[in-house]
Design brief:
The chain folds into two domains: about 5-210, Jelly Rolls; about 220-329, Arc Repressor Mutant, subunit A. It contains 13 helices and twelve strands. It has helices at about 10-15, 25-35, 130-135, 145-150, 160-180, 185-210, 220-230, 240-245, 255-265, 270-285, 295-300, 305-315, 320-329; strands spanning about 20-25, 35-40, 50-55, 60-65, 70-75, 80-90, 95, 100, 105-110, 115-120, 125-130, 155-160. The protein starts with 8 loop residues before the first helix and ends with a helix.
C-alpha cells in the first residue's frame, strides 16, 4: 500500500473521528464498510485488506484496499450519492466488468443504485459519500448538472476524466491531512465545505466540457454473465446439470463460458464453487453457528466430500477450515 493515502496508525488510533482497520477476511471488510454490501474473494490466498473511514457531517470519506480480486455486490443507501475512483498499485490499468480502464475515471452512483463490481487486486479505492441534499442544493452546482444527477435513477455511470479523478484524489488527501491535524470541530466543518465545493466545481467543469452527457450502457457479455450468475447461485446439488438446463435461453455453453471468462477469469462452475466456499467461510465466522460442525456447514454448501472441501478451502483462503474457526470463532 502507498502510505501517502493514510494518516499514520498513531494518528488514527488517537483521533476518534477515524475508523481504521486492517482485515483478514473480505466479508468482515464489507461489514465494516457499512450498508448493504456482499464481497466474494475471487483470487486464492490469505486475505489482507484495510479500510479507513472518516465522517464529517454530510460527507463520509472512505479508502479501501484489498490484496485480492473481489466481487462486490452493493446496494447503496437511499439518501446519498457516492463518487468512486481508484489508485492502481499494480498493474497500471484495472478491469471492471471485462472492460479495461485506466484510473482516469470517476464512477457516479446515485441513491439506491445496485451494482456488481469486479475489482482487481492491489488497488486502493476512494469513496466520497455525500448526502443528496448537500449535493443537489449546493449553491455552486449548475442546474443542468443537478438535472443530470437526478436523471441517473439508480444507474451508476462512469465519467472518463483525468482531471475529475485527480481532483477527487487530491481533495481526499488534503482533507485527510487537515483532519489528522485535529484542529477542532470548526476546522472539520471547513474541510467538509472545501471538499464539497471542489467536487461540485469539478462536476460543473465536466458538464461544460460535455463529459457527462452520455450514459454508457452495459455490454452483452456482462448482461449474459449477470443473468447466468443469478441462475447459478443457490444451486448446490448437481450444479452442472441444473445450470445447463436453466441457462439455455442465454445462449450456447460456449458463449456463457466466454462471458464468465471475460468477467471473472474463470468458468461458471469454478465460479460457483468459489462462491459456495465463501458462503461456508462466512458461516465458520458466524458466532451463532459455533456449535454446528464444519462438516455440516460444508454439506449445506454442497460439499459432500470432506477431503475435497478442505483441499478447495485451503487453496482458496490459504488456511484450513478449522484454522478459520480457531482464529475468528
Amino acid at each position: 500500500m502507498k502510505a501517502i493515502w493514510f494518516p499514520s496508525r498513531q494518528v488514527t488510533e488517537r483521533l476518534n473521528i477515524f475508523q481504521d482497520q486492517e482485515l483478514q477476511d473480505c466479508g468482515a471488510q464489507a461489514d465494516l464498510f457499512g450498508g448493504n454490501r456482499h464481497y466474494v474473494q475471487l483470487s486464492a490466498g490469505l486475505f489482507s485488506g484495510r479500510l479507513l473511514a472518516v465522517d464529517v457531517g454530510d460527507l463520509r470519506i472512505l479508502i479501501e484496499y484489498s490484496n485480492h480480486r473481489l466481487e462486490k455486490e452493493v446496494k447503496l443507501e437511499g439518501d446519498c450519492f457516492s463518487f468512486v475512483t481508484a489508485v492502481a498499485l499494480k498493474p497500471p490499468d484495472i478491469a471492471f466488468g471485462g472492460v479495461t480502464r485506466s484510473t482516469d475515471w470517476v464512477q457516479v452512483c446515485p441513491p439506491e443504485a445496485e451494482r456488481v463490481a469486479l475489482t482487481p487486486s492491489n488497488t486502493l479505492f476512494i469513496y466520497a459519500r455525500l448526502k443528496t441534499t448537500a449535493l443537489l442544493e449546493h449553491e455552486a452546482l449548475l442546474p443542468e448538472v443537478s438535472d443530470w444527477l437526478c436523471d441517473l435513477r439508480k444507474n451508476p455511470v462512469f465519467v472518463t476524466s483525468a482531471s475529475l479523478a485527480n481532483r477527487l484524489r487530491s481533495n481526499t488527501l488534503a482533507s485527510l491531512e487537515c483532519l489528522a491535524s485535529d484542529a477542532g470541530h470548526d476546522y472539520r466543518a471547513a474541510v467538509k465545505q472545501a471538499f464539497i465545493f471542489g467536487l461540485v466545481t469539478g462536476l460543473n467543469f465536466e458538464w461544460l466540457r460535455q463529459n457527462m452527457i452520455g450514459t454508457p450502457g452495459s455490454t452483452t457479455s456482462r448482461d449474459r454473465f449477470l443473468a447466468a450468475r443469478k441462475l447459478l447461485l443457490g444451486k448446490h446439488e448437481d450444479v452442472a446439470k441444473k445450470f445447463k438446463a436453466a441457462s439455455k435461453n442465454l445462449g450456447s455453453q460456449r458463449v456463457i463460458e466466454q462471458a464468465f471468462s471475460n468477467q471473472v477469469n474463470m468458468g461458471p462452475l469454478s465460479y460457483a464453487r468459489v462462491v459456495r466456499l465463501h458462503n461456508a467461510r462466512q458461516k465458520l465466522l458466524d458466532a451463532s453457528l459455533e456449535n454446528e460442525s464444519i462438516g455440516d456447514i460444508a454439506a449445506e454448501e454442497g460439499f459432500w466430500d470432506w477431503s475435497r472441501f478442505t483441499t478447495y478451502y485451503r487453496r482458496q483462503f490459504g488456511e484450513l477450515p478449522s484454522e478459520t474457526r480457531a482464529r475468528f470463532g
